[in-house]
């Protein structure tokens, strides 16, 4: 089996990376950054997001596991003192895998530029360029739902629902549900402009299309990636066909992670 390790880059994470590498080499596992079967992220949830995007082209052949060197993470849920246990588990393949849904974002352009397709593990956010309000039609399953006017929109995956989405008062969604959630950022609501105000949870195959009303240039984030898109015709969001795979060696129920992250230390 081949493995690769992505470190956050600080001293603690780097040291842990080398320790894990040495242990796994000792079990005759091969370090291969190009085609790993397993990717170990050492740092935080942000580090796992980086690892995910590094290997997004081979999700079917890669399983992720996250070790946290700071606070408990949602993706990084192994502690440094569990490393030896983790290494033994890894060496004793096959391991169990859990799959989480992803968000597919397809951006289409008015003129001849080819469409762009992205996969997000946490979320996609859409804001207007240069800080003015975002004005965009929200089209669900081909039918116009509302014209949104405000700071922006956040479309998240279930596992991303505890990140930016939560700060927008979105619901926390269990990652066994194949769904995406659309949450508003400071919508303008008065006699003229009206939005639903509540986050919407869409099932698989209910596509949400965002269509510009006037402006066509947007600041778009895909997880930690910040991208500017110009001359946009539409931003299509739906549950992706692809899934992300996490290696699972012991039960750590999602609601327990939620509780330990947000309710108690
Ligand atoms: P960051 O600014 O370091 O991340 C913000 C925080 O979100 C960090 O504490 C990070 O954990 C945590 N986080 C990431 N994914 C999470 C998840 N699925 N559930 C719960 N917490 C999560 O930037 P980053 O590390 O590159 O992460 C990018 C993410 O930041 C974006 O995907 C977005 O969700 C989030 N974000 C949140 C807000 C907000 O809450 N207002 C605003 C912008 C972006 P670690 O410290 O372990 O990395
Ligand atoms: Mn971070």
TrEMBL record:
Which Gene3D superfamilies would you find in this protein's record?
A: Probable inorganic polyphosphate/atp-NAD kinase, domain 1, Probable inorganic polyphosphate/atp-NAD kinase, domain 2
Catalytic activity as recorded in UniProt: NAD(+) + ATP = ADP + NADP(+) + H(+)
Any idea which UniProt keywords this protein has?
ATP-binding, Cytoplasm, Kinase, NAD, NADP, Nucleotide-binding, Transferase
Tell whether Aminoacyl-tRNA synthetase is among the UniProt keywords: no
From the UniProt record, which GO molecular function terms apply? NAD+ kinase activity
Task: State the compartments where it is located.
Answer: Cytoplasm
The EC number(s) given in the record are 2.7.1.23
Q: What class of enzyme is it?
A: transferase
Active-site feature positions: 45 (proton acceptor)
The cofactor(s) it depends on are: a divalent metal cation
Binding of NAD(+): at which residues? 45-46, 50, 122-123, 149, 151, 186
Pfam name, any one? NAD_kinase
Role according to the record: Involved in the regulation of the intracellular balance of NAD and NADP, and is a key enzyme in the biosynthesis of NADP. Catalyzes specifically the phosphorylation on 2'-hydroxyl of the adenosine moiety of NAD to yield NADP.
Q: Which family does it belong to?
A: Belongs to the NAD kinase family.
Official protein name in the record = NAD kinase
Q: Which organism is it from?
A: Scopulibacillus cellulosilyticus
Source organism phylogeny: Bacteria, Bacillati, Bacillota, Bacilli, Bacillales
């Amino acid at each position: 089996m081949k493995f690769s390790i992505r470190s956050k880059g600080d001293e603690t994470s780097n040291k842990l990376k080398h320790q894990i590498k040495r242990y796994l080499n000792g079990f005759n596992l091969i370090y291969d950054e190009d085609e790993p079967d397993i990717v170990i992220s050492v740092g935080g949830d942000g580090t796992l997001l980086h690892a995910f995007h590094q290997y997004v082209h081979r999700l079917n052949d890669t399983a992720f596991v996250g070790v946290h060197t700071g606070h408990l993470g949602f993706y990084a849920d192994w502690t440094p003192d569990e490393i030896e246990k983790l290494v033994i588990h890894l060496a004793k393949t096959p391991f169990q895998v859990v799959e989480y849904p992803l968000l597919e974002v397809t951006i289409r352009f008015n003129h001849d530029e080819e469409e762009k397709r992205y996969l997000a593990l946490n979320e996609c956010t859409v804001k207007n360029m240069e800080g003015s309000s975002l004005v965009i039609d929200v089209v669900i399953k081909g039918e116009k739902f509302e014209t949104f006017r405000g700071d922006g929109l956040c479309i998240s995956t279930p596992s991303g629902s505890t990140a930016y989405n939560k700060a927008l008062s979105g619901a926390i969604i269990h990652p066994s549900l194949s769904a995406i959630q659309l949450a508003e950022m400071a919508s303008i609501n008065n006699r003229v402009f009206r939005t639903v105000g509540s986050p919407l949870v869409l099932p698989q195959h209910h596509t949400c299309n965002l269509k510009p009303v006037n402006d066509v240039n947007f600041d778009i984030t895909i997880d930690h990636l910040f991208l500017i898109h110009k001359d946009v015709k539409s931003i299509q969001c739906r549950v992706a066909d692809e899934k992300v795979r996490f290696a699972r060696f012991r039960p750590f129920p999602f609601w327990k992670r939620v509780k330990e992250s947000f309710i108690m230390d």
